[in-house]
Amino acid sequence: MIQSFADHKPADLAAALMEMSPSRSAEIAAALDDERLADVLEEMPEEDQIELLGTLRSDRAADVLEAMDPDDAADLLGDLPDEQAQALLELMEPDDADQVRRLLHYEDDTAGGLMTTEPVIVSPETSVATCLAMVRKEKLPPALASMVFVVRPPTETPTGRYIGLVHIQRLLREAPHEPVGNYTDAAIEPLEAEDSLQEVSRRMAAYDILAMPVVDDAHRLLGAVSIDDVLDHLLPSDWREHLDDDEEAIS
């Protein structure tokens, strides 16, 4: 039975788990590896995330949270009682926990609350070839794979001063040995962490862009907001539940 889910996309597996009895979904979740379960949790509504996470031992739950994108992990922990959230953060690896704690400081419907702290970040001297290799990572969401963000060192968030972004389509046309700093687009004004969801969506639509940088007062890169996270917050909270209805209507 569990093997039959091996080829399911995370969203399809999430939908299947939500249709199962709590005991059966817990059994399936226990059999999935951390990365797979993290992907599935990211596709679930908040209530179902909390219920499924609650079936795991605390140390396993912390491992799964580490495997989730930091913004998704922060959203999930933000919906838990403070005592439970803090206990799970203490069990996580310090670096992962620190990223999530930074995100928990922001309101959900702001650029800071929407952003991930793990976009593709490079220094100006990084070669075009290296940038193209970085965006090929299987785990990287398509929206974040569409560009790299160029900063002064350090390149871990919060970074050195933000310089600009480069679209991957541009890099595909350039010589592999060239430094990415030669092609930086500084015309796209970055978001600030406190910008509202409405401002984020307006700016992304205006620039026709899949991901936007978020900077602090010192112009250091804090992270990036991708279009999938914006849509998650703009759509009704139960939009995933209606996918099955739409698919049945089409079939």
From TrEMBL:
<dbReference type="InterPro" id="IPR006668">
    <property type="entry name" value="Mg_transptr_MgtE_intracell_dom"/>
</dbReference>
<dbReference type="InterPro" id="IPR046342">
    <property type="entry name" value="CBS_dom_sf"/>
</dbReference>
<dbReference type="InterPro" id="IPR000644">
    <property type="entry name" value="CBS_dom"/>
</dbReference>
<feature type="domain" description="CBS">
    <location>
        <begin position="115"/>
        <end position="182"/>
    </location>
</feature>
<dbReference type="InterPro" id="IPR038076">
    <property type="entry name" value="MgtE_N_sf"/>
</dbReference>
<protein>
    <recommendedName>
        <fullName>CBS domain-containing protein</fullName>
    </recommendedName>
</protein>
<dbReference type="Pfam" id="PF00571">
    <property type="entry name" value="CBS"/>
</dbReference>
<feature type="domain" description="CBS">
    <location>
        <begin position="183"/>
        <end position="247"/>
    </location>
</feature>
<dbReference type="Pfam" id="PF03448">
    <property type="entry name" value="MgtE_N"/>
</dbReference>
<dbReference type="InterPro" id="IPR006669">
    <property type="entry name" value="MgtE_transporter"/>
</dbReference>
<keyword id="KW-0129">CBS domain</keyword>
